[in-house]
Structure to design on (836 residues):
């Protein structure tokens, strides 16, 4: 197959991935890492914890692909069958390896524990394969080359898998498909509705080819993934061209390029201005704080927040006037504004946000239905507020509220930049 | 294979399911529907839009399973190859069918539109198969029986797929595995480590059959899924027996049966005692509040919280003494205790929790490494505290901290019940 484009496949092992709750999400991480080097994943499989089934799958897949990445089934328990399945698929011996056992013992020692005897099973190595040290867990992985093809086997725990993928596999395949790398750029849009955006950008589909544009919508946030193939510099120019065209029609809706999510964008905006933020939350109940603090370095600008679920908390912790709560109710524009101002004053921050609404499933009335949410931003240049009746279940309403509030703050920060 | 247990497999067709963003979630719906009738899904695959690849996968899968459910690739465009792949896999003719074309025309008429000419391709029927009408979209599905095995092909759009699955497939397979319906019960364990639990329960594997016990571990929470097969009342008794045996060895580690997660369990415990909770969070940054308020009805017992990310917030909003922060540092047992007591006093709640730690990636020192977390519970019977150095990235450390704190509160509540 010399010179031909090389392809890959993913195999996830584990009966729990054949139930009705979990999907094999490791394959997404693997696909992304391989795509950076021009290798596409052409097939994915999931099989249960059976030596025979795993061995069969490996045999069939390695016959069709240059690279097969297997995840899961490497632990110490009886249902961890992947190691034995690899030995069977390639008809090779499997034997205990003292060095690998030492790795595992060291790992347990780091945790201040003795290695359970059961773990010696993880020190068995398939003849001719390279065992891969696991610095984030105890189960070693393995890499096996056979007739120019590679079988890589990683633990199913994403955090453990990711390290081995980058450290042990990527260097092996980085040169496989020179010049075929596919690169992409993601425009993050806030405060928009998918169908409106679709109408705005539709005329660009023909110009840039529909295949190179993917829209991913989630509640209050939209991602436009723009792709280009080929030599990196040429593809980069193509992406510049695409980005400019999309920015022209989308304007301020574009929150950022290649940003993870709105919290990063807002935190960046605050850092740029050296301003601080505190948040008051009712219906989102801590979700806004949690998302902001999920970003490393948030503490530089995020001072904290109050989850004022009860009226008493709104009064005593962030100074919402008692009469206001009586007169307008906790879910009102007045209270959202007072929360934003109150939390800003209490924390002494430059910006304060307030969110109050009815996330359901109960608590709605004809006048104030489930889904009604008021949000407000208090800042150096005053207070602004918006509201909407969001459709969806409790989780969806909370996420919409979070994103709507972050997006209003983003637009306020952007307006000050101009 | 008469009499033997029948099994199924799922095949999803579509290059978009081989990218780095989307997973085949139709298989979860299919798995659930089949499980109700005692049929387990033993394998899943995803392949791209190639006649050859789809045909190969169908051929391999139908040879190994009694039922293969294919989704996707039935539309009118050039990359919809599933219909042709079925014809090739079974070596059969494919021909236009006037009745099927009429269905599609009717569907477009309902939407007030003429059928585009391109759609006639969807009216082609594989010889000997039964076309399935689509009442929720335009692409027909198909059902093909061959040597006692069934191939079912549905559109990839979940809403369209679901209707055909229930209407056209379920009646065909409902009697396949009589008395083999499988029911399960999930024990939720908090504050445990997988390998320790594994050692405790290992002797039960032989007694109840390894296949009926699945362990699902996530940071600080473990789920033991116990399954039993057969007639519902017999299987129910078997589950009672299993649950009793597991409870005997696991004791207080068992937080609940068939509960979603620890927040539900803690909120239930509080409701039972008619007691209230307020939380103070530093490194979890709102995650604890967010998880608690994600549960409908949380407001009955959850009063709110403070995210005291900065030292000033710890001092001014929940009364952690300034000197204590100077002497012991923000990440210390003393401060965790003071946070729990302070938030309890401020909100006037029965219980208060405090969490302070270093989630990383930066901020660690030799004495206080990344992952060090202190948590405390203040309640009617006093204050207790624990600490640990959790391994993992920022997200993992935060989730561990959350679950460790919820679990300590759960155990405190349980102790009062006794």
């Amino acid at each position: 197959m010399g010179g031909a484009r090389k392809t890959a496949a993913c195999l996830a092992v584990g009966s729990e991935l054949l139930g009705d709750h979990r999907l094999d999400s490791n394959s997404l991480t693997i696909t992304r890492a391989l795509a950076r080097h021009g290798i596409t994943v052409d097939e994915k499989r999931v099989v249960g914890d059976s030596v025979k089934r795993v061995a069969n799958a490996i045999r069939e897949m390695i016959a069709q692909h240059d690279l097969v990445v297997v995840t899961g089934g490497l632990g110490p328990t009886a249902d961890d069958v992947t190691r034995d399945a690899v030995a069977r698929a390639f008809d090779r011996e499997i034997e205990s390896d003292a060095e690998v056992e030492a790795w595992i013992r060291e790992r347990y020692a780091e945790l201040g524990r003795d290695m359970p005897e059961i773990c010696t099973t993880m020190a068995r190595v398939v003849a001719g394969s390279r065992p891969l040290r696991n610095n984030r867990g105890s189960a070693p992985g393995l890499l096996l080359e056979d007739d120019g093809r590679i079988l890589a086997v990683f633990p199913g725990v994403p955090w453990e898998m990711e390290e081995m993928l980058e450290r042990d596999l990527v260097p092996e395949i980085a040169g496989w498909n020179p010049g075929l790398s596919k690169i992409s750029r993601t425009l993050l849009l806030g405060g928009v509705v998918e169908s409106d955006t679709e109408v705005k950008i539709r005329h660009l589909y023909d110009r840039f080819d529909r295949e190179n544009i993917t829209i991913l919508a989630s509640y209050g946030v939209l991602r436009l993934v723009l792709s280009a193939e080929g030599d990196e510099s040429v593809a980069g120019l193509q992406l510049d061209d695409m980005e400019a065209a999309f920015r022209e029609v989308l304007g301020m809706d574009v929150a950022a390029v290649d940003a993870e999510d709105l919290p990063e964008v807002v935190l960046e905006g605050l850092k740029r201005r050296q301003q601080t933020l505190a948040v008051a939350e009712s219906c989102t109940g801590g979700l806004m704080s949690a998302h902001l603090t999920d970003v490393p370095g948030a503490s530089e600008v995020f001072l904290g927040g109050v989850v004022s679920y009860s009226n008493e908390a709104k009064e005593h912790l962030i100074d919402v006037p008692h009469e206001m709560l009586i007169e307008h109710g906790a879910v009102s524009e007045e209270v959202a504004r007072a929360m934003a101002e109150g939390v800003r004053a209490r924390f002494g921050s430059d910006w304060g946000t307030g969110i109050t609404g009815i996330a359901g499933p109960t608590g709605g009335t004809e006048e104030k239905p489930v889904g009604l949410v008021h949000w407000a931003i208090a800042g150096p240049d005053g207070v602004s507020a918006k509201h909407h009746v969001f459709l969806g279940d409790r989780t969806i309403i909370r996420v919409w509220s979070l994103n709507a509030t972050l997006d209003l703050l983003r637009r306020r920060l952007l307006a000050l930049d101009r």
